[in-house]
């Protein structure tokens, strides 16, 4: 067998339908679109979601709730994230961003109390949970809320 003897299996390749190439092709004149009507025109056909005049699903469903567009989005950090820093270090937005813990594109930082800490740190955040504040103070550290 040579490379020029190879061919695809019978029925695995189908020729594309060539429309609008004359009456002898069987696909001439109206090019398989029928006569007149919305679907025969260029760009014709209903828009997405159109249900033939029936009330569409997106209008049948009730509206629920409300989205506050002024809601603040905080970067969340936990006590366990502070273990990588040296004792008595001062932590703020810049140092936390350099360490890769937060993304500064949000509205602030919130410190939560998941984890344990055994050394003191001075941390400046926008919000802090009661548990996190107690753990930092118990370790001899300080929390500043701005």
Descriptive notes:
With 146 residues, the chain is α/β, with parallel strands linked by helices. The radius of gyration is 33 Å and the shape is elongated. The strands form two sheets. The protein has a three-stranded parallel β-sheet with strand order 1-3-5. A three-stranded parallel β-sheet has the order 2-4-6. It contains three helices and six strands, in the order αββαβββαβ. It has helices at residues 57-60, 93-98, 130-138, and strands spanning 74-78, 90-91, 108-112, 122-125, 127-128, 142-145. The chain has a domain at 74-145: Ribosomal Protein L15, Chain: K, domain 2.
- From the spread of the alpha carbons, the general shape counts as elongated
Mind telling me which CATH architecture of the domain at 74-145 this is?
Ribosomal Protein L15, Chain: K, domain 2
Number of strands: 6
Helix count, DSSP H or I runs of 4 or more residues: 3
- Major beta sheet, strand line-up: 1-3-5
Strand content: 15-25%
CATH topology of the domain at 74-145: Ribosomal Protein L15, Chain: K, domain 2
Major sheet size, sense and barrel closure? 3 strands, parallel
Ends distance: 80 Å
Low-confidence stretches: none
> Which whole number gives the mean pLDDT?
93
| H/E element sequence | HEEHEEEHE
Q: What's the helix and strand layout?
A:
Blueprint lengths: L56 H4 L13 E5 L11 E2 L1 H6 L9 E5 L9 E4 L1 E2 L1 H9 L3 E4 L1
In short:
The chain has 146 residues and is of the alpha/beta class.
Characteristics:
single chain; 146 residues; alpha/beta; Ribosomal Protein L15, Chain: K, domain 2; three-stranded parallel sheet; 3 helices
């Amino acid at each position: 067998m040579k490379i020029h003897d190879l061919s695809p299996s019978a029925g695995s390749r189908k020729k594309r339908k060539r429309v609008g190439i004359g009456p002898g092709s069987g696909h001439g004149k109206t090019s398989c679109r029928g006569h007149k009507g919305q679907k025969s025109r260029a760009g014709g056909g209903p828009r997405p979601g159109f249900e033939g005049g029936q009330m569409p699903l997106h209008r049948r469903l009730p509206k629920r709730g409300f989205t506050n567009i002024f809601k603040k989005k905080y970067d969340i950090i936990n006590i366990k994230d502070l273990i990588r820093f040296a004792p008595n270090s001062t932590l703020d937005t810049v140092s936390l961003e350099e360490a890769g813990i937060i993304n500064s594109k949000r509205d602030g930082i919130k410190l939560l109390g998941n984890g344990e800490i055994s050394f003191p740190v001075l941390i400046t955040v926008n919000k802090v949970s009661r548990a996190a504040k107690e753990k930092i103070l118990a370790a001899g550290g300080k929390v500043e809320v701005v």
